[in-house]
Amino acid sequence: MRTPFTGVGTALVTPFRKDGSIDEPAVRRLARRQIDGGVHFLSPVGTTGEAPTLSHGEKLRVIELVVEEAGGRVPVLAGAGGYDTRETIALVRDIEKVGADGILSVTPYYNKPTPEGLYQHYKAIADSTRLPIVVYNVPGRTGVNIDVPTIVRLSAIPNIVGVKEASGNVVQMCEIFAAAPGEFILLSGDDPLTVAAMAVGGRGVISVASNVAPSEMAHIVELAESDDYAAARRLHTWLLPLCQVNFVESNPIPVKAAMAAMGLLEEHYRLPMVPPSPAAREKVMRVLQNLKMLGAAARV
Length: 300
Hints:
Layout: E1 7-11, H1 24-36, E2 41-43, H2 56-70, E3 77-79, H3 85-98, E4 102-106, H4 115-127, E5 133-137, H5 139-142, H6 148-155, E6 160-165, H7 170-179, E7 185-188, H8 194-199, E8 204-207, H9 214-225, H10 229-245, H11 253-261, H12 278-290
Parallel strand pairs: 1-2, 1-8, 3-4, 4-5, 5-6, 6-7
């Protein structure tokens, strides 16, 4: 039986309408497509969901829609993080009320806390809720890395159950796996490192690419889980151009452009995010064409 928050969790985009409002039917449709595609959990209102541009109420509404659409078929790991611990706790408490199964909490950004500050931040969040928490370490976005000793300290808190590691440092992943308790979940936060992370003890990925290719990402992870790394590598190598092009400009700009080209959503962003440059868009379209993914939404 699968442990919650292992396998592929899709870092869901947030679809907007032209007037800037949330496209609620599209939120439901995209969540349903992911579940039908075989992903193992959903992660709304994170970085890929443009969370910094969503109000408190909008975050809760998107999570509520995803929870309703999931209907208990897959867990929902909702994003709740920021540089103000009190504000994060308030959001976590409200997320608990709308029925999410867990919290994905990004490291405080901009104020760059010390290791002790990081520990106390996450401990305060954990003390405020009964929900399991996955810590999200993405120093390229936040300006601070959660070092291994701090992760190990956090892993001793009962409802801190895992870490999404997006440092890009495979050695750090190895050290976390070696030092943290056996039940502590290590997830890749980078699609291109999915197979590498699982080979050193990771339990899956929170994926951007699965917004476009849910069944393919699920298959990669399931192959790795069954120790068929040769097949996992072959499929991963085939999908690698998509994983890479999603970061040709800041996430989620490329993936939303790709999804719009596939007919999955209207291509709208909230400032300061803007549409891709012509050169970036051309790269995204070329990858979709080469992978024969244009028009794939018609099958949904």
